[in-house]
Amino acid sequence: MSTQFALDLRVARRKAGLTQRDVAHLLAAHQSAVSDLERGRIRPGLTQIVTLSLIYGRSFECLFAELIQEARRDLLERLETLPKEVRSFAGTFNRPATLERLRHRLTAELKEHGGAADLRGRQARDTELAHHRLGLAGRDALDVH
After folding, report:
1. In Å, how far are 40, 64, 114 from 46, measured between CA atoms?
2. What is the pLDDT of residues 128-140, one digit of tens each?
3. Planar angle of CA 74, 79, 82, nearest 5 degrees
4. First to last CA, the chain
């Protein structure tokens, strides 16, 4: 998983003035699970995503923008490998139009939010800005629990 996403979680927690133990309690999880989330070792489940959004007072889209962008890219790639021909019946009548609208929307959103290279550049800038705001010289300094 992305280190930017993990850093975003860590920065949000620290900005809120919470410890990993606090967040773990609020998530009904063990402190090591919060550590794993913040180190990018695991991804949060749906309940954890909703709870983290509530804890930090940030919208899902704001907190998980990178994951949404990654999902857009992955979905667009899977669309390209989706079987073109399927048995035609009433239940698949809208399939071609639905897939084309999805492809168009994903492509437009990726352009609007920047491509992979642009995303990496923004992530590097965001990481540098987060370190600066916290007054930290390196990422390792963020690993203090």
Report:
1. 16, 12, 25
2. 555 554 554 444 4
3. 125
4. 20
- How far CA 139 is from CA of 11, 91, 130, in Å, comes to 11, 52, 10
* Sequence-separated contacts (24+) of 127-132 with Cβ below 8 Å: 127/3, 127/4, 127/7, 130/7, 130/8, 130/11
Mean pLDDT of 36-41: 94
- Token duo for residue 67: 């994951």
The answer to whether 37 and 9 are in contact (CB under 8 A) is yes
The DSSP secondary-structure symbol of 96 reads H
Structure tokens at 3: 């280190």
- C-alpha distances in Å from residue 12, one per residue of 49, 106, 111, 118: 13, 28, 27, 23
pTM of the model: 0.60
Q: How many residues appear in the chain?
A: 145
User: Which amino acid type is present at position 20?
Assistant: Q
